[in-house]
Amino acid sequence: MEWLLLALVGIVAAAFGSLVGLGGGIIIVPALLLLGPGLTGEEVAHAAAVGTSLAVLVVTALASSLTYSKKKLVDYRSAWMLFITSGPASVLGSALTGRLQGAAFQLSFGVFMLLMAALLVAKDYMKPISRSWPIERTFTDAAGRAHSYGYGLTPMLIAGFGTGLVSGLFGIGGGSLFVPIMVLLFRYPPHLATATSMFVIFLSSILGTGMHAALGEMNWPFVLALAPGAWIGGKLGAYLAARMSGKALLWLLRVTLLVVAGKLIVEGWLEL
């Protein structure tokens, strides 16, 4: 029963992740930490949970990226620009994960999830910054509407590095930072930001997974259990993203983040 539950976690996490550009790791990591004792009889090391999450994110991001690509929603030029710094930073973050002790990891990850929930709430009330950028782009959506957006080289590289570092450290994919930055700072259309973010997550997760695997921070049975659901969920989320606003799901995700964040913070605080 527990392994079936883990497979369902893969579907739900990937569907949520690809729908809003998060990647799903922000659900998988706490799920492994909480469900681990029931599956293996002992607690799952936080570094192994992060490594496992990144390995599953490779599957999730590939599935959703292929679906988004068919709909021509991926800005590959922007994606490769972000990957220049997010790729190496994800390797660095992956190498640092094991240095965080159990309680410290739970506290820092819980606080991070709390901030992400707040950011997901705040972005409904924030408007994209109205300014011109050195590099300007235009995107025409399926309805024929033209959207103008742009970015500067230095801000783009900094955003890629910071997001990649957090991605490798916590195994969350980075979309929770990529999407708000792209929408609010660079004026990307939300669906384009989500799709492009998933492709960057795919590239960065490969490097982060390699580092965690090299350090022995991986639970391969968990990867095998989560991967099929991640593929299905990645396709499902990308399919739904083009057909719904996702507001109800976003609120469900916000509440989930708040509940899990609270649990991790309390447990981490008690273990100090």
- How many strands, which pairing sense, and closed or not: the largest β-sheet? 2 strands, antiparallel
Give me the strand/helix succession.
HHHHHEEHHHHH
Helical fraction: over 70%
Computed CA radius of gyration, to the nearest angstrom:
17 Å
Across the major sheet, the strand order is 1-2
User: Structural class of the secondary elements?
Assistant: mainly alpha
Mean pLDDT: 81
Q: How many structural domains?
A: 1
Tally of contiguous helical segments: 10
Tally of strands: 2
The low-confidence runs, each spanning 5 or more residues with pLDDT under 50, are: none
In words, what does this structure look like?
By secondary structure, this protein is mainly α. It has ten helices and two strands. The protein has a two-stranded antiparallel sheet with strand order 1-2. α4 runs parallel beside α8 (190-214). The longest helix has 25 residues, at 46-70. The radius of gyration is 17 Å and the shape is globular. The mean pLDDT is 81. The chain crosses the membrane at residues 47-68, 80-97, 103-122, 157-186, 192-215, 222-242, 248-266. It is a multi-pass membrane protein.
What is this structure, in a nutshell?
The protein is mainly α and 272 residues long.
Which tags fit this structure?
two-stranded antiparallel sheet, 10 helices, 2 strands, 75% helix, globular, transmembrane helix, membrane, transmembrane
